[in-house]
Amino acid sequence: MEALSEIPPNPEKPIEISGTFYNLLTAIESAMDISAMLVKDFGKRVEDDYGNIETLQEIGIIDEKLAEKLKMCNGLRNWLVHRYNRVDRQLVLNSVEEVKEILIEFIKRVEDVLEKAKP
Fold it and tell me: CA-CA distance, 83 to 46, in Å (whole number)?
């Protein structure tokens, strides 16, 4: 999630905006990868990102509210990947802080799970 801290607060130059999009995309992808690893570690079947988020909710790692927020983040990631040149820049830039908060909350939940798993 280091990519989150590298996002400038108000990117204006095209290179800053491109970097912001890339860092946001990378951070969300990392969270989805962590989700898949957790699902596997809990002995469940790894599915697509949305399915993995639902599985994490079912096994109690995240609540419904965080699950919906993570799905929104993944939707934003998909939008960035598949429509990069036609993305509403301002919409994405307006989402940066919210996405940061969601991913930080997710990381805290993951840290809690890892802490409980320690012998």
Answer: 26
109 is catalytic: no
Please identify which of the residues 77, 86, 89, 109 carries the catalytic annotation. Answer: 77
What is the residue type of 26?
T
**So where are the chain's domains?**
2-117
Whether domain 2-117 has CATH 3.10.129.10: the reply is no
C-beta separation of 3 from 26 below 8 A = yes
Tell me the per-residue pLDDT of 5-53, one tens digit each, with 9 for 90 and over.
Answer: 777 778 888 898 888 888 999 999 999 999 999 999 999 999 999 999 9
Predicted TM-score (pTM) of this structure: 0.88
Helices (H), the chain: 2-5, 14-41, 49-58, 64-82, 89-117
51, 66, 65: which is closest to 110 by C-alpha? Answer: 66
